[in-house]
Amino acid sequence: MLDQLTVERIRAAAETIAPYIRRTPCLERSTASATLCLKAENLQPIGAFKLRGAFNKLLALPNDGLGVVAHSSGNHAQAVARAAKILGRPATIVMPSTAPPVKRARTAADGAHIVEVGPDSDERANRAHAIARDEGLHPVEPYDDLHIAAGQGTAALELIEQAGTLDRFYAPVSGGGLMAGCSTVVRALLPHAEIVAVEPQGKDALAQSIAKGERTRCGHSETIADGLRCRAPGVGNWPVLQRNVDRVVSVTDGEMICAMAWALTELRIVLEPSGAAALAAALREGEGRCGVILTGGNAMEEHLAQAFEATRA
User: Fold this and answer.
1) Which tens digit of pLDDT belongs to each residue from 40-56?
2) 155: burial class by Cβ within 10 Å (0-12, 13-18, 19+)?
């Protein structure tokens, strides 16, 4: 179904969701080798880009009054809960026991019913699918969905409108909804720009998939980037990523903390580790005019403390 993902569909999504999301600023900063054009999605009302896809999906559902169900470690959970609340639908969210407390609390505060499962992403996906089937709810997938990917792609559409021509584009990738949508926009509007996907070290499913030429699952490994822990690119997203992404790089937990620290001192904004992943890569290797998606700012206290400590180094 994601073969229907086009820049025209993403432009339509931008019009659909405009009343419900914030047109976030593009913050421009220079380094020794690059001009960074930073799309501050951490300033969305829920603190993350996920609101774009959630509204685009829920607004596409039939007006039947049925509830929705989603599975997420945090930011997608918050996005679906907020969109459902505003649009008047009940929401059930399956969250892992390891979900950051701040994300769980904000999801509950928007009225969602939370079902807790173990830490594995496959377990929460299977539980959400079972609830959708048994209770007749509409599933709202976190990444592998045409409406979700189109909604997320509006971030790149805005970035290019704000920043103009780019030499490189950086965004994090896990399940791939954000990068599928954004890379579709960048490839259509800036065909000569290099598209760089960023993964946490050890969660390199896309890098492995591209190296093998087929969708590949990575093993279990720990990362502080709770939003980037999917074990494989989405089935629908994979061919889009394979076609559009020029290069995949990985960043360490330490590099994400240092990028959070840089954002605190240079931008005066808070990022979470997942939200700082693309920035970490751009700070390390960026050249020319680089577009970067800062995906979220819902940081746990311990990670913020590490970032504050890094500002003193």
Assistant:
1) 999 999 999 999 999 99
2) buried
